[in-house]
Amino acid sequence: MLEWLFCYYVGMKRRFLASITDRSLQRFVVVGVISFAVDFGLLLISHYIFNVQLQVATTGAFLAGLIINFILNKLWTFEAPKGAKQSARQAFLYALLVVVNLIITNFVVSSAQAMGLGPEISKPFATGFITVLNYIVYNRIIFRAEPPIEPFAG
Predict the structure, then answer these.
(1) Where are the domains of the chain?
(2) DSSP letters of the chain?
(3) Cys-Cys with 93: which of 35, 100, 136, 142 at CB 3.0–4.6 Å?
């Protein structure tokens, strides 16, 4: 039993270290930082320098961050298949995931508030959760390489 636990631990450690050094995960983090910088920077500049109404500035900055995030993850992080058909599929799935992220975030934040926890605690928790979810969905569904077409073996 002890030997099994040790082997299980070593295997988990190797998988964890492999995932940390995985190039797509590293790029995913970089893209996340860039997207956040675009979102946050545009929000501050448009609201405080150009006096754009806060809701309009927030929405525009958020959308700009989403677009940057989609393009960089598609082309650089996951090096996803290109082409109009693939891009349309990826954009649709990405938009669907954004809606799911919004639902999860609102659920977590409002549920936490009902339990007496403020958004300063619940929002980072929700963001961390959806970040992990997004990486898995991006990697396995949205930006996955299409399986090769095999000829009919007849």
Answers:
(1) 24-79, 81-144
(2) -HHHHHHHHHHHHHHHHHHHH-HHHHHHHHHHHHHHHHHHHHHHIIIIIS---HHHHHHHHHHHHHHHHHHHIIIIIS-PPPSHHHHHHHHHHHHHHHHHHHHHHHHHHHHHHHTT--HHHHHHHHHHHHHHHHHHHIIIIITPPPPPPPPP--
(3) 142
pLDDT digits 0-9 by tens, 96-130: 999 999 999 889 988 988 999 888 888 888 888 99
Tokens of 109: 């934040």
Q: Between the CA of residue 72 and those of 30, 101, 112, 146, what are the distances in Å?
A: 10, 19, 33, 19
Q: pLDDT by residue (tens digit) across 20-65?
A: 568 999 999 999 999 999 989 999 999 999 999 988 888 899 899 9
Comparing CA positions, the residue from 152, 154, 98, 153 lying closest to residue 130 is: 98
Look-up: residue for tokens 């299409």? 146
For 119, phi and psi rounded to 5 degrees?
Answer: -65, -20
